[in-house]
Amino acid sequence: MDALSQLFTHFRFRTDLFFLGRLCNTSTHAESEKGYLHLVREGRCLLQIPDTPPIRIEEPTLIFMSGHMQHTMTPLDTGGLDVFCISFDFGSGVRNPLTHTLKRPVLLQLNSNPDLLAVANRIFTETAERHCGYQMAVHHLSAYFTIQAVRCSLRLRHLDTGLLRGLADRQIGLALSHMHQDPAAPWQLDTLAERAHMSRTRFALRFRETVGVSPMDYLATWRISLAQSLLLQGVPVALVAERTGYSHNAALTRAFTRIVGQTPTAWLTQQREQMKAAEEAMDAEAAEQTMIAKQATSAERAAAGSGAWLNDQGTGI
């Protein structure tokens, strides 16, 4: 299995098409665990990131961004933007391995990338036509579109540093693939350099230049991301430690706390509380919508009854 496929299969990769249509007002986005894909099919806008010069979008463009960069899209035309927005993550509370090292947005021109444009048009068509099963079709198309965007970014080498840049490098990609495939192995700098067919010194320098962190720091972060995913699946801490290359619970706890800022148990408790609160909020919203629908139905029935009665009396509409 290639390194990118390993990335998607090791975690609970999720996509959410959360907006599609005409964007006529300023829209702001920022969730650190998420990656964002904003596809501007028609119209012009200003992309603004704090402490960064604004970027003008004046042709059909895909904007690929990390959620840790708060960003605002402001339409420049009175007609707004024809746009859709997809967010993606790898599980609640799990650091996004694709975007957490992105320092700036990646801009992909749609006219130069027909494969992306074709999938984007299919998403617009499915949503507009709303044939039977369109919601499931859009869900899978959104996931496919995200993968295509990653592929395109890799092919065009639009990235300064980060995991995607590392995957695009043939030799560094080999080392990444080995780490992804067998995270519990007792990897050392020497053995990873051997897998990349490079000297120890050259490998360490090139890995940092390409990915943005040292090989051993990347391995530690990768292991802890896997540990988070396993904990959310209900795997006991002792087994999580074994599967992620730590000799005992205490070693995992030390590494986990250093990277995440909490112990595994405290982090998992927090995630469960947040998920419970989110579920309760969704249930409350669903109950409110049901009540509104019932009230609307009752009002319609009352109006229909009143109208019929008036007609029966010969004085109605």
UniProtKB/TrEMBL annotation:
It comes from Lautropia dentalis. InterPro entries: AraC_lig (IPR032783), AraC_XylS_family_regulators (IPR050204), Homeodomain-like_sf (IPR009057), HTH_AraC (IPR018060). Keywords: DNA-binding, Transcription, Transcription regulation. This is AraC family transcriptional regulator. Residues 169-270 form the HTH araC/xylS-type domain. GO terms for molecular function: DNA-binding transcription factor activity; sequence-specific DNA binding. The keyword Transcription regulation applies.
